[in-house]
Design brief:
Blueprint (H helix, E strand, L loop, with lengths): L7 H5 L21 E3 L2 E5 L3 E6 L8 E4 L16 H9 L3 H11 L18 E4 L4 E4 H10 L8 E4 L12 E4 L8 H12 L4 H12 L5 H9 L10
Antiparallel strand pairs: 1-2, 2-3, 3-4, 5-6, 7-8
Length: 231
């Protein structure tokens, strides 16, 4: 069975590999490191140590500092062997987006943006046979819901290029969007086993807003990350 270092030529395009990883490299703080594609990397005295943000790499990759300026993505992207294999097997747009979300799960946080390398904010969905906004498809995949045509996906962070599910919000229109306060109340009411109709009435009474039962259902579903994306 090949070691992690055997993958270096295929991932980084360099042939001079290192021996097995020293245990001291396993305790490095990669969260504070720099980005290289899907990797976070930190520098030691003589090496660059890289760990894929998908979280499935059992050991980090090790590259000599003297060779780091020669690396290039031989398969079109800097990522671990697991991610690259999944990328080759992704056949549809949905497969690709689902893969991107799984590979970037550590980046999906309330205090972090997630930007994809698409040249347009729309892509063609062969199943629906129409152009679909990427943010809308990301929301549906991540939260495992299907939005109707009257529901719009809004960005709450102010960055038009961000597609982080944590920064996406579904609303019938900007005027009737579900605010974070409303989401918290819906979560509380749902945890108390209140019916969707009761929650709908409570929202109307407290916020003077009318939201559909479907919106309430989608908000409740959004509290649980899509099981299909679990690694």
């Amino acid at each position: 069975m090949p070691s992690l270092m055997d993958y270096l030529p295929a991932i980084f395009g360099i042939l001079d590999t290192e021996p097995e990883i020293s245990p001291t490299f396993l305790d490095l703080n990669f969260q504070e490191g720099d980005d290289l594609g899907s990797f976070k990397y930190v520098q030691t005295q003589n090496h660059i140590v890289l760990k894929c943000q998908c979280g499935r790499q059992t050991q980090p990759y090790l590259i000599k500092k003297t060779l780091f300026d020669r690396v290039y993505p031989t398969q079109g992207k800097f990522a671990c062997a697991i991610c690259l294999l999944e990328q080759r097997n992704a056949k549809t747009i949905k497969d690709h987006l689902k893969l991107v979300l799984a590979q970037n799960k550590d980046k999906i946080k309330k205090n972090a943006h997630l930007v994809l390398d698409f040249s347009s904010d729309k892509i063609y969905d062969p199943v629906k046979q129409q152009m679909v906004r990427i943010k809308r498809l990301v929301y549906e995949l991540y939260y495992n819901v299907e939005l109707d045509k009257n529901q719009k996906v809004l960005v709450t962070c102010g960055s038009k290029n961000c597609v982080s599910p944590e920064h996406l919000l579904v609303a019938a229109s900007p005027a009737t969007k579900v605010t974070p306060e409303m989401r918290n109340d819906i979560k509380t009411w749902a945890s108390n086993k209140m019916s969707n109709t009761t929650i709908q009435n409570l929202v109307s009474q407290k916020y003077q807003r009318s939201i559909s039962l479907r919106t309430i259902i989608n908000v409740k579903k959004s509290f649980t990350v899509c099981a299909n994306l679990a690694i």
